[in-house]
Amino acid sequence: MTLVAAAGLALSCNGFTTPAGQLGMNTWARRAVTVSSTAVPKKTLAEQAAEAEASKIKFDPATLPPPTADELKSETGADFMPLANALMTGDLKEADQITRDMLIFIAGAGPRSRKFVYFTEVPQIPETDLMTMENLWLKYSDGKFGYSVQARLFASACKQAEEPENFEVFCRKIGWNLMDDGLERKRRWFGADEFIYDVEEAPKGHLPLTSALRGTMLMKAIFKHPVWSRPEYDQKKKK
Known about the structure:
Elements: H1 3-8, E1 10-13, E2 16-19, H2 23-38, H3 45-55, H4 81-88, H5 92-106, H6 109-114, H7 127-140, H8 147-161, H9 167-173, E3 177-180, E4 183-186, H10 217-223
Antiparallel strand pairs: 1-2, 3-4
């Protein structure tokens, strides 16, 4: 076979033949089709944000190991396992109630008998017990809930408002306030509970709840407890 005849043969690729003179044009055409068929419309910022949110791995406290004996220490004889169980199973409403009950228990005989704690009694609450309760909340909420978290947010709110104790700005930060027909109000706790018992949905610091029926002094006293000055809770090292 001559070289001329060979040049006139069709070029073969995967069983399809293409005259040699048309190779360049057909190759370009195939590329053009490929590019046009893979073009994707640009997504809006809202769509990108929605996809990013959906792709997040949701925190599941049930995947974490149960607390060790060292993580349940108490100087008052308190049993923190019911709190741990509620947190591990994601029953945050139950965990929230247990926390208020445990606060009364670890505060001593006086609070136990009257069923509530005076703010003046808070500094005497043993650090060991308060740390155990706090560390369970931090562990099983991925660091989102707890008194130390609230204490940092309260300090931040006061700094933002340039006031020593601005409770309203704090309530807005942690989602304890909401807008209702254009008016700001506190979430309802009794009756139709409006608080958010979901680690994914609730704002940071939303839980635990502390009763303010007798004012906010108890809550503020908890935020000032000496235990939060320890390195692991140092507000200056946390965001």
